[in-house]
Structure formats: C-alpha cells, structure tokens
User: Fold General secretion pathway protein GspK from Pseudomonas trivialis.
Amino acid sequence: MIRHQRGVALLLVLWVLALLSLLLGGLAGWVQLETRQAAWHRQHTQAVLAAEAGVALAMQGLADPLQRKQWVADGREIPLVFDDAQLHVSLHSERGKLYLNSAEGTDFARLALACGATQGQASQLARDLEVRRNQGLAPFRVVEELRQLPGMTQALYSALVPEISLWSGLDRPDPAFASALMRRALNLPQQSAVGADPGEVLVVSSRAQRPGGYHARLQATVLLSPAQGSAQPYRVLRWQE
Assistant:
C-alpha cells in the first residue's frame, strides 16, 4: 500500500513538473516573441523618423538659396544621410499632374487609358466626371473621392492617384513637371524642369534605409509659404506612410 502511494505521488510530482516545464516553455516563447516584436517596432519607428527627417531636410534645402538649385521638382532623387540611415528624397510639382476639378473630360479619359482602363471604362469615367461638374456638385476635396466614380476599380485608382492633383489649378499639366506617362497620354512636349517654376504645392517623397534592412517610405504634399508672417514655412496638405 505504501509503495503504491509513493508511486502515485511520484507520478503526480512528475506530472506537475512536466506541466510546469510546458508552461515555462510557452512563457519563454511568448517573451521571446514580444521581445522580437518590440525590437522590430523600435527599429521601424526609427526608420519612419528618419524618413520624416528627409522631408524636413528637403524643406530646409528649398528655403536655402545655396541649396535650392539641387532640389528640382521633377522626381530626381537626392541621396542624403541622417544619423545611420540612408535617405533618398525627391520632389514632384503638382503642376505636372492633371487637376481633377477643371481638367477636360477627354484628357481624363486619355490618362485613364494610359493607366490601364479599357476604352469603355475610360469614356464612362470621363462622362461621370462631367456629369458631376454639370450638376454643380462640390469639387473634389480629397483624392479618395475618385473611388466613388462608377466603374472605378482599385487597380485603376492606384495607377491614377500619382497623376492626379487637387491643388495645381491648371487646366492642363505643365510639361516641365509631367511624368513620362502623362506626356505620352496627353501628347505633351518634353521640357526641362530646371529653372522652371514648380509652384507652391509640392510632393516630397522620402525613403529611409537603416542597418539590418529596416526601411520606411512616406509622401507629404506640402504648401510652401502658407501665409504671410506664418511661423511655419510650409503646411502639410496630405501625409501618407
């Protein structure tokens, strides 16, 4: 009887030890996972901050007459270094894009075709755009409203967004700042952006690469000199990470 009780007690102890080992193993795995996630989050946050520094450096360069010449708003990348991060920063003028609130429907249809739309889809989107204007509806205020046009697909929307502007105010894109796709779509002449006026609304693209493969990319649409006497030299109109 005593031997039997001792055997049961031993089995119970072994079972408890096995259960504790299992729990401790799970806890150790959870702690390791949390540690790795925290490390990734910290490194990613540092990469995002470095990309934000790229935007600030671009704004600083535009404000400095000695540096301004290298900041041409035609998409060329400027390599920079911030702390231990490698940065690639570029500027795009909104003047090279199609102004959604006044562009001709035919121009919008041609751009949609260049972005992958079918002939029928492009024509329908252009008609819907004209109908919206003729009905006296409010102008587009955010780019995302473009998704509401009937027949718009996610793939087409993604291709159109980089070529669409809500701030240029031009009836047609300025060839000096238009992308190669825009020039082909609207048959615009190729012109140099060097020395041309990029306007007051620019898109700053900043890409940061940190040791270990951590990277971040963001885009900021900024309005230069938002108001006379303003403490801020620019105002952010749109921010994308």
In short: Residues 98-172 form one domain.
